Structures are given as C-alpha cells and as structure tokens.
Amino acid sequence: MQHTVRGPIVFDGVGLHSGKPARLTIRPAAAEHGIWFKRTDIRFGDALIPALWDAVERSPLCTRLVNAAGASVSTVEHVMAALAGCGVHNALIEIDGPEVPILDGSAVPFVTAILDKGLRGQAAPLRILEIIETVQVHTASGWARLSPADTPRMTFRIEFADDAIGTQEKSLEMSNGTFVRELSDSRTFCRNSDVEAMREQGLALGGTLENAVVVDGDKVLSPGGLRHADEAVRHKMLDALGDLMLAGAPILGHYEGHKAGHAITNMLLHALFSTPSAFRMIECTGDIRAKMPGVGVLPEEIPEVA
C-alpha cells in the first residue's frame, strides 16, 4: 500500500548554492497525492510545484523544479532520495525559500527524522514503474540507462583526476534498507580548485567544509575525512535515486550511470516516458513490494555519523 509520514517534520538550514536560510516541513498527504513542494513565501500566484521529471529545469550542479507560473525550488535531490529510500509515496513539502537546506550535505538528517516520526499506511495500492525494455541516453560527458531487472538495482561509475576520488564504481541491489544503510550518509563533494569558479557563478554560496566534502589532489580538506573510502560514488548514487524519484513512482529496474549527473538522469526519464513500450505501470503485489526501497527499514539501521 501507499505510505505517508505520521506527522509534520521540520528542518532548518541554508541552501548550498544560494546561501539563503530556509525552513522545510514535510507534511502528511492523502493517498494518490504524490510528492509536491509548496513555497510558503509566495503570497500571490501558484506556489505548488510538482516533484516530477517534466517540471525539471536545467540548472548546474543540482536538480531544480519549476511550475508553470515560474515558482521554483532547487537542490531537491537529497530530500527526494530520503523519501524514496524510506518508502514515502505521498507528502506535501513546505519551504519558505528557493532552495532546500543542505544540512550536512547528505540525506541522513532527512532519513533520521522521517524514521523517527514513522510512516502511516494508506488505503490505496502502490503502483510501480516496471522497466520492460532498455532505454539509454548519451552525452559527451557520460551516459545512463534503465534496463529490466527482477529487483531495483543501481550501478554507478565515476572518474576524477584528484587522487582523493579517482575512479570509483559501485553496484547495489536497492531493496529494503540498502539506501539507508549504504548511501544515506554520503555527502556532496567538490574539488577545491572549482570552489572559486562556482562562487563567481553564484553557486556554492552556502557551502562549507561541514556540509560538503572538499578534495584537493590526494587530500580531503573536510574535518574528519571521508565517511566511506568510496563516499563520492555513493553520493552520486544517492543523487540518482532522488532524481529517479521524480518518475512519480518507484522504479523496478536496473539504473546504470557512467559519469552521469542530474541532467543525464533527467534526460533518461524523458527518454523513458517517450518510449511507452519500455515500461508498464503495475500494482505492487506483496512479493514485489518486499523488494522495493524502504520496506521494513528501522531507525537502528541508520549509519552513525560524527
């Protein structure tokens, strides 16, 4: 069945790129509602923004959603990943600014609060998007594809010149609590050499060594170092799960990304929905439901972070 959160969950912080303070509240929503954002600071006009693939506006280094009236919310990928990984299908996310707070740069603060609050089952069947034909997109920088699989699965490969990152590849079956245990605490990252350039473009204005992993050659500049030796590729997988959540339903298939980012994953969803023969929507039976992210996840599975 579909699920929502048991009650409101509040987060305060600053946006990674805007540097602006924001309060975000995840509220319960009725069955069939889906995930929507609401800009509470917009007093006139349409302030509701759907968390869907076709509301994505191309933006550097994050996922930005925009409605027909021009209201937007950016850097939604971490909270979307947390909702996907915890098995939340319906929620209204209120926010009083243009960007989701970055918190510690990972999804674990969202996951912790969601699981502490708990979920409520709803009297409506869960429908999932089953991949039945492979769909793939390429750019000059990377590629991504979705292919049929019996369980939700993700494989990702990255390549960076900095020795602190280098080449990393990871493959995980994304069933049950895998996201919470393996990916949720992995933080966003950047190269120290790119920081000034980003700030000149009006990006990373809220970034610090506490909410992002900053690397310089073979050195990790952030206090405490890495949470995982392969934290970078784990974070890319976290981002991808959040971006795939914008399909509007959990996906049963194998996502593969090679040097893929937010734009490539969104291109992949456009290609998928432009190919009706590549997928079908099915009601989630007990056997399939048992394989999906978020089933039976417990708070004690959340990784401990410093």
Automatic annotation (TrEMBL):
SUPFAM superfamilies: Ribosomal protein S5 domain 2-like
Annotated catalysed reactions: a UDP-3-O-[(3R)-3-hydroxyacyl]-N-acetyl-alpha-D-glucosamine + H2O = a UDP-3-O-[(3R)-3-hydroxyacyl]-alpha-D-glucosamine + acetate
GO biological process: lipid A biosynthetic process
Pfam families: LpxC
Role according to the record: Catalyzes the hydrolysis of UDP-3-O-myristoyl-N-acetylglucosamine to form UDP-3-O-myristoylglucosamine and acetate, the committed step in lipid A biosynthesis.
Cofactor(s) the protein requires to work: Zn(2+)
Gene Ontology molecular-function annotations: metal ion binding; UDP-3-O-acyl-N-acetylglucosamine deacetylase activity
Species for this entry: Thalassococcus halodurans
EC number: 3.5.1.108
GO CC annotation: membrane
Name this protein carries in UniProt: UDP-3-O-acyl-N-acetylglucosamine deacetylase
Binding site for Zn(2+): 78, 235, 239
UniProt lineage: Bacteria, Pseudomonadati, Pseudomonadota, Alphaproteobacteria, Rhodobacterales
Keyword terms: Hydrolase, Lipid A biosynthesis, Lipid biosynthesis, Lipid metabolism, Metal-binding, Zinc
Keyword RNA-binding included in the entry's annotation: no
Pathway: Glycolipid biosynthesis; lipid IV(A) biosynthesis; lipid IV(A) from (3R)-3-hydroxytetradecanoyl-[acyl-carrier-protein] and UDP-N-acetyl-alpha-D-glucosamine: step 2/6
Gene3D superfamilies: lpxc deacetylase, domain 1, lpxc deacetylase, domain 2
PANTHER family per the UniProt record, alphabetical: UDP-3-O-ACYL-N-ACETYLGLUCOSAMINE DEACETYLASE 1, MITOCHONDRIAL-RELATED (PTHR33694)
Active site (catalytic residues): 262
Family of this protein: Belongs to the LpxC family.
Enzyme class: hydrolase
